[in-house]
Amino acid sequence: MRRIGRQASAQQGGFTLVEIMASIVVLAIVGLALSAYFINALDNAKGNQNKTVMVNLARNTLFYIQKQADFKKIREQIDKLEDGQNFVLNSEGCSDTAHCSAYETYVSDPDSLTSILNPVINDIHYRVEISYQESLYATLQSDVQSGGKISDYLIPVRVEIEELTPDEEGNLVVSDQKREKTEVEGYIADEKIR
Length: 194
Hints:
This protein is of the alpha+beta class. The chain has one domain. It is 46% helix and 22% strand. The strands form two sheets. Strands 1, 2, 3, 6, 7 and 8 form a six-stranded antiparallel β-sheet that branches. It has a two-stranded antiparallel sheet with strand order 4-5. Strand 6 and strand 7 form a beta hairpin. The chain is elongated and about 95 Å long. It starts with a helix and ends in a 5-residue tail after the last strand. The mean pLDDT is 80.
């Protein structure tokens, strides 16, 4: 009986060292490929989250300008523009420490405009710029609605959001990555049609 037991155990062989090492190498390669996939997916998720924040900031800015802007004063300023000039509201001269005195004629609350044009979300600094879209205005002028031009009541604008990143000296500069910029188009409407 002992003989049968010894023969059975001798026939039950285990894995050789070479087989174990080969399986470890295969598992390491598969694990490395999966970790690269998950790192890439995490990077994409972070980029999409940042893009969503920028779109929401742009919509918030558009809503703010819609409610706070003096339509007549902005229209007067735009009508004074010469060819090649553009009406722009941005954070130049309107930092997070100084209020936006340059825009007092266009918005009723320039102090809150400072936080709109220089938002900081999740410790990320953004720059907001609102610019007039002359090309869209030309198409509005040709559209006639109930005897009047809709262009008399709407100012087409584009809100651009850019992420600011610190450079070597610690100054905030515009990021050069494509995902770090977002544009939203909209209109500043006259109170008469709201």
